[in-house]
Amino acid sequence: EGALLDAADPRGHAHAHVAAQALRSGSERRVGLELEFHLIDLVTPLRRPTWAAIQSLVDRLPPMPSGSSVTLEPGGQIELSTPVSPDVSSAVAALREDRSALRAELAERRYGAVPLGADPARPVRRINPGARYVAMERHFAAMGCELAGRSMMSSTAALQVNLDAGPASGWTERLALVRSLVPLLVALSSTSPWLGGRTSGWHSMRQETWHGIDHGRSDPIRAGEPTSAWADYALAAPVMLLRGGGLSPVTDRLSFADWLREPARIGRPATLDDLDYHLTTLFPPVRPRGYLEIRCIDSLPDRWWPALAAIVVTLVDHPLAAEGAADACAPVATAWESAARTGLADPPLRRAAATCLDLAALHCPPDLKAEVEEFVELVAAGRTPGDDRRAQVERSGALHVLEEEARA
């Protein structure tokens, strides 16, 4: 079902459809934040809560005071998504208030919510029985990346920063800047040196899971005019799921463009509804959805996530900070894998980080300056939140760190 693509030129129609909705032009600089947490049963921390218990828990939550929505992920992770705010200060204040309310509500029921990029201790396991996630697991298994796919879905958590696209005349430059910041943000934000009771040596095991799934749906979008680049990316990306009488996985590697050329391989022509749903299965580190989703940042403890949010928005939206960040990050704009493996051990990335953090501290909103300066001091001392987490796990064990964070 759904509207058919133009039979005379299905690829051209699909490309134009994706490009047209990629970004919305405007002069606003609004901000939305999304923070994911690993939900921990404080009575039995090593055991994941059941899906029924989590649903019951969330159903009994009152509305969040600042209006954040509460949603659930495949491994039982809980997510707070703020309403759109006029600036980063308002967004941080909203998320801080709702995080505090969520913490109090969960504590009454003997649960904790841990904001870390990866669950360091509990075995990887999906508990959300939703058809989408069952089908995703089957697709990942067929593509030979089952463990990475299951780990990504069930044992990772992010801080997502959502920004307006800005005026159309500046889209190419704005997207180039955000893309160049990805390695820096990966290195700075990592809190996932352990995942599922093991360490691989990667600075960010959350990013390692993304690296382990199909690169056609997780690599950065190419440089250039961003709406056309996004459409090219979407059509080249492999189809994951099919709707129609439920959800079923695609178990052969078939790009959406292949489906348009050879509809017999699926058994029917692709529709606009198929294309729109396909877009929801693509996970580049920066994804256009009318606005910009910056998806490459690990979830961080409450001491650090306000600073990271302020750093991101300042480097993108403050004109002087953005100009300096673009110059500083140009030499490392494509070094995201190195950032995920070794963090700031890479000298060019370390230099870019020093410059960008100084710019952020100079130009960030006054009410967030103290948090940003504390983060700058951490990095100046040669550490990141991920380094601190690794030291904690090596000293006390992964489960102890998880419990400690859950009770904080």
Name some characteristics of this structure:
50% helix, 18 helices, 408 residues, two-stranded antiparallel ribbon, 7-stranded antiparallel beta sheet, alpha+beta
Describe the structure.
By secondary structure, this protein is of the alpha+beta class. The chain has 18 helices and nine strands. The strands form two sheets. Strands 1, 2, 3, 4, 5, 8 and 9 form a seven-stranded antiparallel sheet that branches. The longest helix has 21 residues. The mean pLDDT is 96.
Rg over C-alpha atoms, rounded to the nearest angstrom: 21 Å
Number of strands: 9
* Content-based structural category: alpha+beta
Mean pLDDT: 96
**Helical percentage:** 40-55%
Give the terminus-to-terminus CA distance. Answer: 49 Å
Number of helices: 18
User: Shape from CA axes?
Assistant: globular
Unreliable parts = none
Strand content: 5-15%
The biggest sheet, with number of strands, parallel, antiparallel or mixed sense and barrel status, is: 7 strands, antiparallel
Task: Please trace the helix and strand order, writing H or E for each element.
Answer: HEHEEHEHHEHHHHEEHHEEHHHHHHH
Oligomeric composition of the shown chains: single chain
